[in-house]
């Protein structure tokens, strides 16, 4: 006499749960493999190309106004020109949310000016020129003394700052945003015999760039 096994409803339910669990596990493994493969390709391309950070050079800076209507308020007007270069042969750069301002001895002396976003192709260079101004900018009480001392020396060091975001472009792939900070120093000279008159400064110096 043969023995007949009859599965109980509970047993069938357990088999169904096991089958669903196996299916979910396979699906999870497939998705994980696909994600890790895609991530590995991106990382590999990134390591092979190894994009270098953009380079900036100060072309010139012109100070038209630098006056203290009161000991703690400053009026400024200046214009500067930067040369931006993408040194990468296979990586493009998107520049977003760029803002420029000037500072003196650690004190911001102009309002921030927005620079329109732009794209920079492989080995491309662009010229960025903008005017900066400040009306009634609060400064420290020692500001006038510091400027007077630099007037006597005949050289006024002003720092030009550029802050924003960059994105790297490799083929059709575009990375997320990374903060970028550009710091340039312009040493402005005074007219001989007239320390109240500022002359333009043409530095041609390289700026420090942090990404």
UniProtKB/TrEMBL annotation:
Keyword line: Membrane, Transmembrane, Transmembrane helix
UniProt record, GO biological process: defense response to other organism
Keyword Cytoplasm among UniProt keywords: no
Record localization: Membrane
Membrane topology: Single-pass membrane protein
CC annotations in GO: plasma membrane; plasmodesma
Pfam families, A to Z: LEA_2
Domain Late embryogenesis abundant protein LEA-2 subgroup stretches: 84-184
Name of the protein in question: Late embryogenesis abundant protein LEA-2 subgroup domain-containing protein
